Amino acid sequence: MDIYVVKPGDSLWTISRRYGVTTQAIIDINQLQNFPHLVVGQALVIPTQESAYRVVPGDSLWSISRKFNVSVASIAALNGITNPSVIHPGMIIRIPQQSKNFGYIEANGYLEPTTPEKDTQRVDEVGNYLTYLSLFSYQVNADGTLKALNDDAALAAARNHRNAPLMVITNFEGGTFSTDLGHTILSSDSIQQNLIANVLSTMKSKGFYGLNIDFERIPPSDRELYNNFLRKVVTALHAQNYVVCTALAPKTSGQQTGAWYGAHDYPAHGQIVDFVIIMTYEWGWSGGPPMPVAPIDQVRAVLNYAVSVIPAKKIMMGMPLYGYDWTLPYMPHGSFAPRVSPQDAIGIAIKYNAEISYDMKSQSPSINYYDEKGTAHIIWFEDARSVRAKFLLASRLGLRGVSYWELGSPFPQNWAILNDMFNIEKVV
Questions:
Q1: DSSP state at residue 272
Q2: Minimal CA–CA distance to 345: which of 41, 24, 10, 4?
Q3: Are the CB atoms for 424 and 331 separated by under 8 Å?
Q4: Is 115 strand, coil or helix?
Q5: Degrees, nearest 5: CA angle 109-282-267
Q6: Is there a catalytic annotation at residue 216?
Q7: Which residues are within 8 A (CB) of 250 and not within 5 positions of it... i.e. 6 or more apart?
Q8: What domains does the chain contain, in order, with CATH numbers?
Q9: Would you state the pLDDT for residue 68?
């Protein structure tokens, strides 16, 4: 599978001829059926089986394998090379498809249930590519009871795709994560015991595989209270053969403090729970200045710290399935930027005759355009190139897997590349 960036004068026909595939194959894998034409700068997934490469001075099979992110053995086998050191400039060698070259990975997707029909559709669209389905969320009340969640349809769909369902509990209240509610829960042993009992009862009755604890904006002074709560949860749930994971804010050091970071103790979570999901997104956010949602340099900095204090096989890297459309000039405390899917972004570029740019430092695409009123906009979003860069990072660091926020934003290229590069683990 290749990624091709559309240039001026390109058409589906010329691109298909270049790669020896049908135009329909390109349309199908990128879901271009509703787009009247291509966009300059648009990244397309091309379902190729192999490519050709002309050896240049200084090349070795090892350097070529690194260039194309395939193994030396796979190149040698495809070309019948018995002595890998005997290649010469001008020689044409075949480069194998990268399919499944990166081994096994787990993938989690968060879903906020809406209606049974929509929930079923969303799980059916991507369920084959998921290990876990996390239902967001069972909100915890101040007495340790839980607000009900209408997730029966999503759970039924998850079973059809062998997705291990995770129950998500949050300190969400009044439209945001509540610091006061978090403190109330963590400072009372009786509330915690009631909460654990209610969690176990719900998990048993609904058939959950495990628990995802997403407590955010916990007071930094409550860090050890939170760690102790996790120990209680893990002890109780492991006794019933459930797995436990947590969602963590993105930190680059143990000294990073603040409302979102201080109480999230990476080393402790790495020791206590089965795995963690690090929310490596929202650098660019709806209420903030325009910038990439998940710039690879920032993501890398967080994960480099994470793997230094948490076993890599306990870490899932967060990935966004969306971008934002900011009005320019950006005004602090102004209107929030609406969320857009990668498919939406392409449609907007077509509508306003805009081109797509790509920032190499952040490995993120963007679109600058003017709307009907002459107002300037910028969209930062994700495409085939940006997600592949993140998959390569996860592979190089030896991470457990990736986790998506959130299902329901159309992004067919992500799933095609994920499935091409990795074998998706199924645990049920």
A1: H
A2: 41
A3: no
A4: coil
A5: 75
A6: yes
A7: 278, 279, 280, 281, 298, 299, 302, 318
A8: 2-96 (3.10.350.10), 104-424 (3.20.20.80)
A9: 82
Structure confidence at residue 100 (pLDDT): 73
Q: Locate 188 and state its tokens.
A: 């009372």
DSSP 336-389: PPPEE-HHHHHHHHHHTT--EEEETTTTEEEEEEE-TT--EEEEE---HHHHHH
**Which pair of tokens denotes residue 163?**
């997705």
Each of the 428 residues of the chain gets a pLDDT tens digit; together they read 889 999 999 999 999 998 888 999 999 999 999 999 999 999 999 998 777 889 999 999 999 988 887 888 888 888 889 887 889 999 989 887 766 778 999 999 999 999 999 999 999 999 999 999 999 999 999 999 999 999 999 999 999 999 999 999 999 999 999 999 999 999 999 999 999 999 999 999 999 999 999 999 999 999 999 999 999 999 999 999 999 999 999 999 999 988 899 999 999 999 999 999 999 999 999 999 999 999 999 999 999 999 999 999 999 999 999 999 999 999 999 999 999 999 999 999 999 999 999 999 999 999 999 999 999 999 999 999 999 999 999 999 999 999 999 999 999 999 999 999 999 999 99
CA pair distance 226, 73, nearest whole angstrom: 48
- Residues 6 or more apart in contact with residue 289 via CB below 8 angstroms: 326, 330, 332
Name the DSSP letter for residue 36: S
DSSP state letter for 425: P
End-to-end Cα distance, the chain: 29
Strand ranges inside 174-268, DSSP E: 176-177, 210-214, 243-248
Strands 164-170 and 376-380: unpaired
Query: Which residue type, as a one-letter code, is found at position 176?
Result: T
Tokens for 364? 């993120």
Rg of the chain (C-alpha set): 23
Task: State the amino acid at position 399 in one-letter form.
Answer: L
Catalytic residue chosen out of the listed positions 125, 216, 282, 382? 216
pLDDT of residue 19: 85
User: Is the preceding peptide bond at 63 cis, omega within 30 degrees of 0?
Assistant: no
Q: At residue 394, what is the residue type?
A: A
| Cα-based distances in Å from 374 to 327, 344, 405 | 11, 20, 32
Rounded to 10 degrees, the C-alpha dihedral 154/155/157/163 comes to 120
Q: Which residues contact 173 (CB under 8 A, 6 or more apart)?
A: 139, 181
- Give me 108's structure tokens: 């989690």
By C-alpha distance, which of 316, 260, 313 is closest to 285?
Answer: 260
Closest by Cα among 298, 301, 352, 304 to 320: 298
